[in-house]
Specification:
The chain is built from 17 helices and 20 strands. The protein is α+β, with helices and mostly antiparallel strands. It folds into four domains: 93 residues, Uridine Diphospho-n-acetylenolpyruvylglucosamine Reductase, domain 2, CATH 3.30.43.10; 118 residues, Uridine Diphospho-n-acetylenolpyruvylglucosamine Reductase, domain 3, CATH 3.30.465; 110 residues, 2-Layer Sandwich (Alpha-Beta Plaits), CATH 3.30.70; 106 residues, Alpha-Beta Plaits, CATH 3.30.70.2740. Bound molecules: flavin-adenine dinucleotide. Flavin-adenine dinucleotide binds next to strand 3, helix 5 and strand 10.
Amino acid sequence: MSMQPQVVAELRSVVGRDHVIDGANDLRIFARDASIEGAMPDAVVLPANSAEVAAVVRLAAKHRVPVVPRGAGTGLSGGAVTIRGGIALQMTRMRRILEIDPVGQTALVEPGVVNQELSLAAASHGLFYAPDPSSQKACTIGGNAAENSGGPHCLYYGVTTNHVLGMEVVFADGSVHWVSGDTPDRIGLDLCGILVGSEGTLCTITKVKVRLLRQPPTVATMLAAFPTVESASHAVSAVIARGIVPAALEMMDQVTVGAVEAHYHAGYPTDAGAVLLVEVDGIAESTRELMSAIREVLAANEGYAMREAKTPAERELLWAGRKGAIGALGRIKPNYYLHDGVVPRTKLPQILSAVGEIGEHYKLPVANVFHAGDGNLHPNILFDLRDHGVLDQVESAGEEMLRAVIEFGGALSGEHGIGLEKSAFMPWVFSPDDLYVMHQVKDVLDPDGIMNPGKVFPDPDRKRARLAGRTGLAIEAKWW
Ligand SMILES: Cc1cc2nc3c(=O)[nH]c(=O)nc-3n(C[C@H](O)[C@H](O)[C@H](O)COP(=O)(O)OP(=O)(O)OC[C@H]3O[C@@H](n4cnc5c(N)ncnc54)[C@H](O)[C@@H]3O)c2cc1C
């Protein structure tokens, strides 16, 4: 059911005529994120500032219309998909870096600022913003805060919540609040801690104050080959067991390396069963010492062809391959379903072999590219949506992989969130009592349930809602 014309007119009176999109073809662009989910919003609204966000949310509350905040739409769990229709609240007009304080080492930004733009701006002060999702060229700081995103360098530096000092947010009644403050210690109840990672279900984030870090004086980056994913996994555990926490410790399997090398020509060894990309940073003496200790550990675990980047350009190319890996996999199949689970690091060999077996059972190619140091695996099921019935197979395979993750003592998500994709699986890990407590928090902050409905919490209507989404995918499939 589309939105009443009167509501659209009221929205236009808040943000201006051009900043409400309600034409069917234009809306289609906002129907998807980077997951396999899809559903059309009734209207896309692009506010310019916090006051406009508050006014839009007040209107939505008055008319009981769902509000789904949206950044760059790179989310991988369907979080920004308007499964119940309503307003896609597109935050990308709010993209100013309001302040960089080089002395206090903080930045105050609007939510639509792209992650990499913040790091580039901070670099001119010798600073950087540590959380670096592989999508950092596109994803927004608001989306990162809403998902509590990670990235290759979060192994050492911590994920988004460790770098957010405070936020300005708009709650479901349209009220605007600052949560937390300027200092690293959050005093009183940790509201910021609740809202970071709330996936648009509790509030709209309109400003974020983040911590910046001083750029390390030296960085060393090394690529190492392994005969198998198992040997590489053992090496990962051995490095950490040696008491070394590298800045980044990433793994790619042979399928991924083949696609990456064909695209980037970064010198990745295509005959290897897996590669590790290892980075350490700090003062020159300590990086040298750490890298030599890491080499020893990797060699003792069948590591070979170890190659350290000699120039910044070489380092950049190694990282371009890793961060562009998901795009490069498009060479193999046009569609992907990227999963995200975490297991204790020591369980990596077992879970990766279980993932391989599930892929073989369903006859679906699976590529693994992931934050190995955190035990955060990303099995990427590759498929062609034009193959009849393949999506059901892909979803079943994905569900089995997640079940295996839980059986190995893991968690449903390492960084991509629960969104729409995994809400039905929440009872696998949370008891009814746990879920009841979460519902109570939701009820206090959003009593009418207008904020991003159908996400995170298990939803009895999910199946029906997803079928509606599926229609969206089928329409698009005709174009490919
Ligand atoms: C190729 C690729 C690589 C990726 N690599 C990583 C990675 O290394 N680590 C990682 O953690 N993720 C990764 N992701 C996932 C994704 O990029 C992150 O989840 C990112 O934080 C989403 O940001 P976005 O701006 O695109 O948000 P969107 O996809 O637009 O939205 C994501 C969620 O945040 C909510 N939201 C967005 N903005 C706001 C706001 N202002 N206020 C309240 N809620 C809001 C939405 O409602 C939704 O629930 C990757 C994705 C891709 C496609």
